[in-house]
Amino acid sequence: GPGPVPVLSAAPAAWLPALQLLRRGSKAVTRHWKAMHFQRQKLLALTEYLPPRPALPPRCLPRDTPTAHQEDGYARVLRRQAEEVFRSSRMVAVCQYNSMPDEDLVTLQHYLRKHNIHVKFVLNEVVRPVLAQSKYRNLLPLFVCRNILLVSPETRAREMLRVLKRVPQVNLLGACIDDTILSRQGVENFARLPSLEASQGQTVGALSLLPSQTSSLLQQGPAHLTALLDEHIRRLRDTEGSTEPPPGQGTGNH
Amino acid sequence: MWRWRLPGLLRAGGGPGGVAVPRAGLKKLTLPPDYSGITFPEKPKLKFLDKVPAVPKVQREPRRLRDIRGPSQVATDFIQGQYGILALGGGYLHWGHLEMIRLTIGRSIDPKSMFAVWRVPAPCKSVTRKSLGHRMGGGKGPIDHYVTAVKSGRLVVEVGGRCEFEEVRPFLARVAQKLPFPAIPVSRESLQEMRQEEEEKRLNNQNPWTFERVVTSNMLGMRKYLSPYDLRLKGRYWGKFFLKHRV
């Protein structure tokens, strides 16, 4: 029946909840949030979680640098390829690359291939360490934006400039030709120079100019004498009609 | 009045410091995930659970709400799958909920590469209802329907297979929202992290006064206002609710 039931058990009375609390209110498990006794609320407020507070907040401590990320095998392969390219080519031109249609890119590559110039797409993060350790250290400032390398075992700057002039999306920044770093102006000047064979021929011609004149110089005296005597003979023949020239005069001088 | 709003400005990782300029770098080639140690059950989809048990109960059983109260002792860890729905409160699941779970998960998984497994039994607890509009008295009402009791910390369903948590999480979250108790989608790793976090919080709590300490030593006669179950529940549970913020 209703009403508090006295408990007869060996356990002390303090073990059981107070009967007055059992009498009022709903059951222990309800669908709604059952209102807590104020003492219980105070206990919960007292025993809340307090997070640890270090003397120095973590944002004031020096931020540990991110550990060097794992060396990517792919990056190593690309770096090796870049080293190979730099070692094997005489001319390396660095150009800024803006996106262009694929077919135009293929056409550009075709025209450059005709002059034995290869187009290489490089990533700055791959190429920069390669350059820093090789002798092309001074080319580092050029590798900032998206760029391509035009490499060739021959130095045909004139054809390269001619092809690049037609393509507005690729701008020449600088080049390294035969271990000489050239700016854009330098490349243009270099292109205007005559080719190596022509300049070699010119040098040889200039050097051999004087020796070629030696034989004519030596022969100048006798040739002049021969011409004078011939002139004299002709004049005497003209006036020969009456008198006969005395023999043995032509061979008087030796 | 609801108005269509444009989404906010796109901040590419900048925030208060500035806008980060997007940069292209070397493509990081990662290996595909390894799904070698996964065993598929015979039927990948969830089994149909009956509304009424095969042998319907004759004797009406008492309400016994203690099957909702407190933490769960069964089905707290993963068995077959990698991802699941964790209950963060107690409640009863009836046939409607179970059908919703079965159909939603059946629609969202690909049976060739994913599977799902029940972690709750079919409804077996009978719930009685008196007809509406009558006064109190006249005995216990007849059996209305059957339910399954779920305590907090129990897994409801498990999903596994050749899939990632990010693929599974959307539909598990949608299912979890429709359940009568708060629930979240979890994976094996996230459950372990949650437990570790709780343990860390318990250890580095700077408050010298904990509920457990006060209750076990009956400081200030607090047990007059608390239940004997609070010795076990340690202030983290109140009725069927699980108080996640409490240590």
Q: What sequence of helices (H) and strands (E) makes up the elements of chain A? A: HHHEHEHEHEEHHHH
Give the strand order, joined by hyphens, for the main sheet of chain A.
2-3-1-4-5
Q: State the end-to-end CA separation of chain B.
A: 42 Å
- Category by helix and strand content of chain A: alpha+beta
What global shape of chain A is seen? Answer: rod-shaped
Q: Report the sheet-strand fraction of chain B.
A: 15-25%
Radius of gyration of chain A: 51 Å
The unreliable regions of chain B are none
Q: Find the count of extended strands of chain A (DSSP E, 2+ residues).
A: 5
Helix and strand pattern of chain B: EEHEEEEHEHHHEE
Provide the structure class of chain B.
Answer: alpha+beta
Q: How confident overall, as mean pLDDT of chain B?
A: 92
State the helicity of chain B in percent bands: 10-25%
Largest interface: A-B, 35 and 38 residues
The tally of beta strands of chain B, per DSSP, is 9
What is the molecular shape of chain B?
globular
Oligomeric state: heterodimer
Distance between the termini of chain A: 171 Å
Question: Looking across the biggest beta sheet of chain B, what order are the strands in?
Answer: 3-6-1-7
Low-confidence stretches of chain A: none
Largest sheet of chain B: 4 strands, antiparallel
Topology summary:
The complex is a heterodimer of chains A (254) and B (247).
Chain A: H1 19-23, H2 38-46, H3 73-88, E1 91-97, H4 102-114, E2 118-121, H5 124-133, E3 147-152, H6 157-166, E4 170-177, E5 180-183, H7 184-192, H8 196-207, H9 209-218, H10 220-238
Antiparallel strand pairs in A: 1-3, 1-4, 2-3, 4-5
Helix pairs in contact in A: 3-5, 6-7
Chain B: E1 83-87, E2 91-94, H1 95-108, E3 114-118, E4 125-128, E5 143-150, E6 155-161, H2 165-178, E7 183-187, H3 188-203, H4 211-216, H5 230-233, E8 237-238, E9 241-242
Antiparallel strand pairs in B: 1-6, 1-7, 2-5, 3-6, 4-5, 8-9
